[in-house]
Amino acid sequence: MKKMLITGETILTGVFGWPVKHSLSPVFQNAAFHFCNLNWVYVPFEVRPEQLKNAVESIRIFGIKGINITIPHKKEVVRYLDAADEEVRILGVANTIVNENGFLKGYTTDGTGFLHSLKEDGNFSPEKKLVFLFGAGGSAYAIAGALVKSGISGILICNRTIEKAQMLKEHLKKNFRFENAEIIPFEKRNDSKIWKNVDLIVNTTSAGMKNDDTILVKGNNLNEKVFVYDIVYNRETALILSAKQKNIRCLNGLSMLVFQGAVSFTLWTKKKAPIKEMKKALFGFIEKLQLR
Ligand SMILES: NC(=O)c1ccc[n+]([C@@H]2O[C@H](COP(=O)([O-])OP(=O)(O)OC[C@H]3O[C@@H](n4cnc5c(N)ncnc54)[C@H](OP(=O)(O)O)[C@@H]3O)[C@@H](O)[C@H]2O)c1
What we know:
This protein folds into two domains: 11-109 and 255-291, 3-Layer(aba) Sandwich (Rossmann fold), CATH 3.40.50.10860; 125-248, NAD(P)-binding Rossmann-like Domain (Rossmann fold, 3-Layer(aba) Sandwich), CATH 3.40.50.720. The protein is 38% helix and 18% strand. It has ten helices and twelve strands. Strands 2-1-3-5-6-4 form a six-stranded mixed β-sheet, sandwiched between helices. Helix 1 (25-35) crosses helix 10 (275-291). The longest helix has 17 residues, at 253-269. The relative contact order is 0.13. NADP nicotinamide-adenine-dinucleotide phosphate is lined by residues 110, 135-140, 159-161, 164, 204-207, 209, 213-214, 231-233, 253, 256-257, 260.
C-alpha cells in the first residue's frame, strides 16, 4: 500500500467525541480516501462538552471540510450549525457536518446507513415486514424513521423505560403519520405469542455490550424466518450468538458503522464510497487488535 502523504493541499476531516480514542472511523475513512486517490485525511478530535462551541467554530477557522459527531455531542451540536437537513430537524441530533465555505450544515447518517447495510449486506428488504425494535434512544429514532419510510407493515417497540417507547410511538405518528406501532413492556418481551409474525428484530440498545448484560430474546422465540440486526459493534452480543446457533440470518453493528460512514464520505467528497475497501480496512484492523 502507498504511504499517505500530507501536503499543503491536504483536506482535513475528522470526528469530534469525548472520549474518542476508541473510534474506528479513522481506519475506514482514511482507507477510503486513499483508495479514491484523494489528498484528504480523517483524524479524531477529543472535544470536551464545554469546548464543543469553540470546536465547531474551529471547523470554519481551519477550513475543515467535514466532521462526524459522536457521543456525547450529537444533540448539543445542532444549536451551533447554520443549517440542518430535514432528518436533523425532526430528530434534533446530527452526526455529520459538511462545511461549504464556512457554512455548516448538519446531517444524520444512522438511518440511511442502517437501511443500506440491511439491504446490501443483509439482502433483506423491510417493505411490508413486521419489525420488533428494542430501544428508544437516539439510534432507535433514526432507524425507526428509516424503516417506516421504507414501507414496513408495523413496529413493536420495546424499551426498558416504557415512557420513552411511548414517546417514540408518538414521534412516528406525528412526523410520519405512522399508526401501526405497538408498545411491548420490557418485562413481557419473551411472551411467545408476540414473536410468531415478527420478520425483523433490531436491537438499538446498549444491552449486549457487556458480558453480563440482560438477554433480550430467549433463543426459543427466534423463528427461522426472522432476520436479526444488532447495531452493537464492540462484540458479538448474546442476541447475535443465539441467532448464529440457530442458523438464523443476522448482522452486527460493524456493517452499519461502515455504511453510515460511507454516507458521510459521500456528503463530503460527492463521490461514491468504496464500501469494499472500507470494510477490508476495518476488518483487517479488528483482526490485528484481536491478535495483540
Ligand atoms: N453500528 C453503528 O453504526 C451504531 C450507530 C449508533 C449507535 N450504535 C450503538 O447503539 C447503542 C445505542 O446507542 P444510542 O446512541 O441510541 O444510545 P442512547 O440514545 O443512549 O440509548 C440507549 C438505549 O439503550 C437502552 N439501554 C441501555 N442499557 C440497557 C440495558 N442494560 N438493558 C436494556 N436496555 C438498555 C436505553 O434504555 P432506557 O431508555 O431504558 O435507558 C435506550 O433505549 C450503543 O451500543 C451504540 O454504540 C451503533
